[in-house]
Amino acid sequence: MKHMSFKRLLASVLFLSSTIAFTACEKNPEVTPATYQTGVLVVNEGSFSHSNGAISYYNTTTRQTENDIFKKVNNRPLGDVVQSMIDHQDRSYIVVNNSNKVEVVEAATFRSVGVIEGLVMPRYMVAVGNKGFVTEWVGFGVPGRVSVVDLQTNAVTKTIPVGQQPERMLLARNGKLFVANAGGHTLSVINPTTETVEETVAVGDGPNSLVQDANNIIWVLAGGKEVYDANFAIDYSQTTAGRIVRFNPEQPRFSPAQPFDQQGLIFLSNQRRPAQLQTNREGTKLYFLLLNRESSTGKLYEMAINASILPQTNLVAPDFYGFGIDPSDNTIFAAEISNFTSPGQIHHYFPSGDRIETFQADIGPNGFVFRR
Amino acid sequence: MLLMKRTGLLLLWLLPHLALSQADTTAARLREVQIFGQKVQEYAAGSRVVTIDTFFLQLHNSANLGDILQARTPLYLKNYGPGQLASVSFRGTAARHTAVLWHGLNINLPTLGQTDFSLIPVTANSQIALQHGGASANYGTAAIGGAILLSSSPLHGQQFRASVQQDVGAYGHAFTNVGATYSHGKMAGATGLYRSQAENDFPFRNVTRFGTPLEQQQNAAFRQYGFTQDLHYRLNDRTQLSVRGWYTDNDAQVQPSMGSAHANARRANQSLRLMTELDTDTRTGNLSVKTAWFKDRMQYRTDNIASDTDVDTYQTQVEYTVAVQEKLRLKAGAEGQHFRAEVDGYGRPVQENRASGFMLLRYDPLPVLDISLNVRQGLVQGYNPPLTPTLGLNLRLHDTRSSTLTAKGNLARSYRVPTLNERFWTTGNPNLLPENGRQIEAGLVHDYRSTRTRLNSEVNMYRMWVDNWVVWEPGGLSGGWSPRNLQQVQVKGVEFSSDLQYHLGQLRLGVGARYSYTRSEQRKNYGGSDDGTLGRQLVYVPLHNASLFSDLSKGPWQFSANLTFSGYRYTRADNLDWLSPFGLVQVMGGREFRIKASRLQVVGKVHNLTNTVYQTMQYYAMPPRNYSLSFRYFFSKSFL
User: Are A369 and A43 in contact (CB under 8 A)?
Assistant: First the structure.
């Protein structure tokens, strides 16, 4: 209860300050305190078309949550469907999918300092030095693209055509940027210096996420091809099962590493979509969700990089919409959503799967950014 | 004209602006006889029934029903922009808990179970009445928060009237209306044609964008056209046949919320409504038989989505009214509906049959006491909603020639049958139960009249429970979004209204005030875990809502002013975000010029006089102060 009233107080303060700001029509010249230097940030999508996506700040010391810190600091909403967020140098970049923008804030204060616009259905971002790379779907059934952003000016300087529905990216240790084209069956390999696609690699239907392990092997999680009928229902007679594929990026033409064959490890059922591949800090364990294709929520699985079969049992019981591995201690933060109109619950687990704590975030939590 | 014949039974009252009857055609144009409202009240003792002033409706005939309700009733309208989707919250309920009836037949879209009020132009229905609260016994499904009753005026007099109207306004607004009514011998008819459009490229400050720039609204244009046709034929002294048709075609870009990409979203709707009504006086009473066919189509398009809906509704309704004795009147009836729906998202064509039987009783055992006792049993293919009785009382505590004080009260049950979407969507729930409402209400009405003045005031208190409240949630049978009977909602409210009418010579003045307090909260959640929404006010239900208005006419001059106020509205189920209160002012003035048998009227309006920045749905921009002009030409000729 105390927790709730604290939030309501915050909301009141926010409301009052925003009223004053709108009335006075001038910026508050006060220096914003550096409040968010350490802790866990939760990315909350919000309800589609309601512009109530938000970033929550979880203070791991006080175990207090502050919701919608962007609106609190900047007196305006973050936007519609907050897809992802990255920290880079002293800034944070928040990809707001259905607002077609990336909001730029000072990482420690969350003060708005700029925006990247001119994007179409942006999904994820990776930053390399003074360049940002943003995947954009552009539309359905059309090629997606990766926009190159000058992080000094926040202007898009170039767009690179890639496959359909480009999702997550991996900046590999060899400096190459691997883009998962989830609407197709390939990875696009971009050279961040020349800003060109150097190679397109077939990996299996629906690649959506990828990581590099302790041995520099790249693992790709392919969700399978989702086929819809005329009524937007999934046609399971044509939908393909997902798979995990791995390769060594240093070997020519990415010949598959042992013991997997070229097919990778194929999931038994096409009813679920594997997604959100992540590793622990050491790069020795893989984690992913096996999502119900209708609800996009599913169980969390763990797999060692030397395993030769897919994990048979889930790590913890609930169905999650997103998760993250805290690189400081390998604990797991996982987001449970009830619907897209009320806040989701964040469960924090030891690597063993024992629960540490549960706290409430905002509407539709899908991911985490760790500042430790 | 059935109504005309029954004027002896029904209390007539004239619109206050125009007290005394004159043979003057100008006055006749405005002097609409409010028989309709009385008919509603006959079987609604103990309930709050309100008719919208026809003078106001005529001045605002270029608006849509949502605009009118927002201005003159305690209903809260959720507007997704001007001319965009407008849904209603009546007594703290959701949009699907308001029944909308056209000449007694429910016209809520069977797929969604609700009405988009932007698709109901005021010009198509000259009479609008509201019955507040649960009234399923009278109106069937969805009459939980209340019912909105639309109809065209009865035609009377042996004459021909025609009108032509052109409005122009800011942001590309244009409205054209051509109408004629004719009554001669055994035939009477009314024809109306209308066309409305707007670019809606108004400026607004985009508070969701970096730098909060001033922008011009994009992707918010619409155009709407349609026609209405009423024909009445008197077969003999006791029997009349009426045929009514109403078509509306709407093509609208879908205004995005300030923070959202619009993806060139566009929605087109076509609704054709045809009905016949046979009305005959028998030896013992009156028989009314209605048959209707409604066709509702919708096409929704974005860059990435195409979704079509095509629904046919066939309805028939039989009512028999009998005056058992002077103080006891009984109406018994039955109705049946057949739906055929082809909807992307159902995966197959769908049909459903529904029926209901009802009995409405009005008994006035004492001069000071009126009793309504109504009951309805709905029947739906596969399952039945509960029996819904209503008991209502009017008790006149004080009754003199100039002043009446009446106590009112009612107990009612109400229901809402699941919509076709809720049942037949590929992830729908065929086992969904009907929503189930219960209500208790009490009120006082004071009526004062003198030769120049009439003052009518009413205050009501009610408490309502809606159980098995449906919520769409992820995690149905297939894992997709599916509706469940998840909540119980309780509404406690107070409604107050006061209307003063005064006339002196050529001067006619009307002043009205409305206030409503609505505490609507989720009391139970059958899903188990509390996500912080239990006990919270429902979204987009203002605790306080009020309006104040005045209509004035003196000779050829007419003025009207309207102030509406809406209090805080929560935008999230956990009440952690909200919209701030706003007040909205609209004023208008006009003058009429007479040239023999015709009249020319020029009306100017100022919308949002105070230039208020407001939203009725969060982040959907609304226009700043703007102006419009209306030119109307009326012609009439008597056949006598």
Answer: yes
Note whether B486 and B526 are within 8 A (CB).
yes
Q: Please report which helix (H) or strand (E) contains residue B493, including its range.
A: strand B482-504
Cβ contact B621:B217 at 8 Å: yes
pLDDT at A7: 41
Tens of pLDDT along B448-485? 999 999 999 999 999 999 999 999 887 655 667 789 99
| Residue A144, CA distances (Å) to A188, A344, B62 in order | 11, 30, 45
Check if A194 contacts B (Cβ < 8 Å).
Answer: no
In the sheet with A112-116, reading across from the earlier edge strand, the strands are A82-88, A91-96, A101-106, A112-116
- Of how many residues is chain A composed? 372
| Residue in A259, A260, A258 with CA at minimum distance from that of residue A245 | A260
Cα–Cα distance for residue pair A103/A78, rounded to 1 Å: 8
Burial class of residue A165 in the structure, from the number of CB atoms within 10 Å of its CB (0-12 exposed, 13-18 middle, 19+ buried): buried
Asked if A229 is an interface residue toward chain B (Cβ–Cβ < 8 A), one would say yes
Q: How far apart are CA A275 and CA B116, in angstroms?
A: 39
Question: Residue B124: what are its φ and ψ, rounded to 5°?
Answer: -80, -15
3-state SS of B44-83 is CCCCCEEECCHHHHHHCCCCEHHHHHHHHCCCEEEECCCC
A268 touches chain B (CB under 8 A): no
Residues of A in contact with B571 (CB under 8 A): 50, 52
Taken as a whole, chain B contains a residue count of: 640
ipTM, interface predicted TM-score of the complex: 0.84
Residue A323 and residue A333 in contact, taking contact as beta carbons nearer than 8 Å: yes
Nearest by CB to residue A49, choosing from B257, B481, B531, is: B257
Quick one: pLDDT band at residue A250, thresholds 50, 70, 90? Answer: confident
- Tell me whether residues A79 and B531 touch, CB distance under 8 A: no
Of B260, B427, B580, the CB nearest to A19: B580
Rounded to a whole number, what is the distance in Å from the CA of B206 to chain A's nearest CA?
Answer: 10
CB contact under 8 Å between A80 and B257, yes or no, is yes
Number of Cβ within a 10 Å radius of residue A207: 32
Q: Is B577 on the interface with A (CB under 8 A)?
A: yes
Burial of A1 (0-12, 13-18, 19+ CB in 10 A): exposed
Angle made by CA atoms A285, A355, A47, in degrees to the nearest 5: 85
Instruction: Choose the closest CB to B531 out of A99, A114, A338.
Output: A338
Pair type for strands B222-236 and B187-198: antiparallel
Residue-wise pLDDT for B225-241, tens only, equals 999 999 999 999 899 99
Q: What are phi and psi of B138, to 5 degrees?
A: -85, -40
In the predicted model, residues of chain B with pLDDT beneath 50 are 1-38
Taking CB atoms and an 8 Å limit, are A80 and B572 in contact across chains? no
The verdict on a CB contact (< 8 Å) between B529 and A50 is: no
What is the reported pTM?
0.88
Q: Which residues of B touch A231 (CB under 8 A)?
A: 344-347, 426
pLDDT for the residue numbered B2: 34
Q: How far is CA B278 from CA A14, B338, B351, in A?
A: 61, 20, 27
| Chain A residue numbers touching B344 (CB-CB < 8 A) | 230-232
Put simply, the answer to whether A51 touches B259 (Cβ < 8 Å) is yes
Q: Residue B639: beta bridge partners?
A: none
Measure CA B545 to chain center: 17
DSSP string, B223-270: EEEEEEEEEEEEEETTEEEEEEEEEEEEEEE-PPPTTS--TT-EEEEE
- Give the minimum alpha-carbon distance from A8 to chain B in angstroms, rounded to a whole number: 7
CA distances, A120 to each of A79, A116, A137, A165, A338 (Å): 14, 11, 7, 11, 28
User: How far is the alpha carbon of A76 from chain B, nearest alpha carbon, in Å?
Assistant: 6
